[in-house]
Amino acid sequence: xxxxxxxxxxxxxxxxxxxxxxxxxxxxxxxxxxxxxxxxxxxxxxxxxxxxxxxxxxxxxxxxxxxxxxxxxxxxxxxxxxxxxxxxxxxxxxxxxxxxxxxxxxxxxxxxxxxxxxxxxxxxxxxxxxxxxxxxxxxxxxxxxxxxxxxxxxxxxxxxxxxxxxxxxxxxxxxxxxxxxxxxxxxxxxxxxxxxxxxxxxxxxxxxxxxxxxxxxxxxxxxxxxxxxxxxxxxxxxxxxxxxxxxxxxxxxxxxxxxxxxxxxxxxxxxxxxxxxxxxxxxxxxxxxxxxxxxxxxxxxxxxxxxxxxxxxxxxxxxxxxxxxxxxxxxxxxxxxxxxxxxxxxxxxxxxxxxxxxxxxxxxxxxxxxxxxxxxxxxxxxxxxxxxxxxxxxxxxxxxxxxxxxxxxxxxxxxxxxxxxxxxxxxxxxxxxxxxxxxxxxxxxxxxxxxxxxxxxxxxxxxxxxxxxxxxxxxxxxxxxxxxxxxx
Amino acid sequence: xxxxxxxxxxxxxxxxxxxxxxxxxxxxxxxxxxxxxxxxxxxxxxxxxxxxxxxxxxxxxxxxxxxxxxxxxxxxxxxxxxxxxxxxxxxxxxxxxxxxxxxxxxxxxxxxxxxxxxxxxxxxxxxxxxxxxxxxxxxxxxxxxxxxxxxxxxxxxxxxxxxxxxxxxxxxxxxxxxxxxxxxxxxxxxxxxxxxxxxxxxxxxxxxxxxxxxxxxxxxxxxxxxxxxxxxxxxxxxxxxxxxxxxxxxxxxxxxxxxxxxxxxxxxxxxxxxxxxxxxxxxxxxxxxxxxxxxxxxxxxxxxxxxxxxxxxxxxxxxxxxxxxxxxxxxxxxxxxxxxxxxxxxxxxxxxxxxxxxxxxxxxxxxxxxxxxxxxxxxxxxxxxxxxxxxxxxxxxxxxxxxxxxxxxxxxxxxxxxxxxxxxxxxxxxxxxxxxxxxxxxxxxxxxxxxxxxxxxxxxxxxxxxxxxxx
Lengths: 488, 471
Description:
The complex is a heterodimer. Chain A is mainly α. Chain A has one domain (126-487). Chain A is built from 17 helices and four strands. In chain A, the strands form two sheets. Chain A has a two-stranded antiparallel ribbon. In chain A, helix 7 (215-231) runs antiparallel to helix 8 (234-252) and helix 14 (375-399) runs antiparallel to helix 15. Chain A starts with 13 loop residues before the first helix and ends with a helix. Chain B is of the alpha+beta class. Chain B is elongated and about 80 Å long.
């Protein structure tokens, strides 16, 4: 395939990462310091302890990358550390005396980073995951059903049944399910994309798939509708379905899938808004947020979103400054509405910077997808980075009243352990995919170590997953999906 | 997708930010300014709302010196329940954030002084305000509005029941909440939105609405000063049982036809119902609009107000009832006062005005509203004709209680029946002196029987006329 020349050898760029990481830590710890100044006991041991923990964890992660994935994208880790650090600072700042959310978030950050390191260390190559295509499907289903199982479920919290109880903690398995679902979609579509793509009849400019190839589409639709009905979680429902639509579009570059998918979700959403009061309330409090009746309604009123808008408005262009605003007036200021808290204290400029970081993260994920040579990796990287981006869109769009507010967390920023854990795992996977994407292509003597192993794995995979279609489609995808990626 | 997010953020934080900041539910502004030295609201030089030195945590505390008397005008300045009344309408001036105070702000910035707001002086006459307030018995729901017809200035505007805004401007959130919940239980007090009786209560105007009919009749050209109107004891309508009777208490029954003077003096119903029948709904509604029904009240009132209504698409009986201010006709006491003032001022309605002057902290006058005509309600000829007849209502008719010795008083009474048996909204509206109107007085007492209503309206108006004219 590709020829490798000594002068075009890929560069690891780990030093760039280290420099950016120092910058990210400066931002995070600086934010924490600003907040600490406003505090009664500024620069106490807590501050130094937290700051050094974050710094050490980030540097350990960096060292692991040097050892295990030295061609990984150098921008991803610093961005995520900066976002996570800003989130920590803001959550810490929003803690009322006696609250422990900040420390809890710190603990979860460390756990999540440790898990992400473990993923990189143990998995070695993302293509291994392809073997688990259908296991992932089963795992997703299990994770989604868990919150409904008596004994494990944490019951209905704030109107949604998405939590389970793990000892003293609660956990949202749905957050992890988005990863397993992405693995399933990637595995399934990389095996069956030709079939899905080529069969079917053409109506007008669009080629529609055969009905029997609609199976996975229907499954995904049922999953998201099921989540909506049984867990009352509109946000995750949109996320799962959006994830699937994008992945199938990327795999086939057939616009018809998007059309079918969007009409299905609109139809489902419309039905849901007619049948389920909580969906109807969400939409009502979006459209009529500023009517008196809706504002004061509890539950399901628009008080939360309107307070968030007030907060952001008072921030204006430059913000009130960290620790100077009143984000506490907004309900859920440290979780669902943390974007409004940032908007208030950092202003338009600060919030733009944060969104920019997400945008960069998203493009870096897609760049990994473009660069990697296996279809599974392409689809997985697309799916995962899109999941993060879509989650941002749904949350920030909801907070700014662009779309109805749904209960999704802002990746890396918002308080919540499950979300942190899941997103750090995504980061681990993206780093690994980018490592193969940017790394040297063939097994030259200069690159001993993992690559032959990976090749071996890759040749093994069809035997495991390709059995159903009988096709070996692990080869590089034609240009079509790449075009689709470019269009996104 | 990201472009949409950037757009939405820009909209919320920059483009739409001012609107959001001005929203009444937005507590951030008040929390920001809560402890600043806010300007005073003054009446005849004395503060009715001022910021006094507060505690360590909050340097200034808003207090109301005559809380119940002025609650309907000042509104309240609360951390938890927002800002209402003049406190809200004049917030930019009182807080010192108005553009007119820009130089003062720069000065404060460099000198490091505490921000200080402008003071707002009202047109209210404290003696008349107090007198009017005391004329409404405790426990009685009612409103009194006293204005200068020639300028639109409001001299007094009171209503009962009232409340103490200090209780809702407290530092103690729990106490504040308890007080708030206590106050909103009182019938007749509306805190959300906070409007008091004179500007907020929409009441059936009853016979005072006959001034509108009279103006419409004269304007149409189908009637003149000498017209004889049919005055049957009751009026019937095709197809329904309902009969519209004349007022039973007066002398209407003595004549089967009446001229305008008699019909107004005795407040007979059927002559005005017949006018409405002849002119049609459009003509009455149009004249009502010329007096301000369904219209805005200009931008000098600075208080929230309800817009008075005249119903449309009426059947014959409905039109006849509407012509005598019953059915679904509704007017605020202020609206009735504006109608009367327009008659007093040669047909020109002046914009109601509460603000005498706004002064910066160094007492420089930064705003001084001038009298502004709001609309032309009728011609000077018709206005003077109606004035003549209204004068006879007081000198010879059922408004005699309002007569002031040595002064020509013009007036009109009204008794709007409520659903409850025997209870009415009792009105008096009038002005004096008839030939050179200095003051207009509008009194309404809600839910009273006829005798009580008669005692509480015209005689009280007389006391106010005397107080203003003897000054």
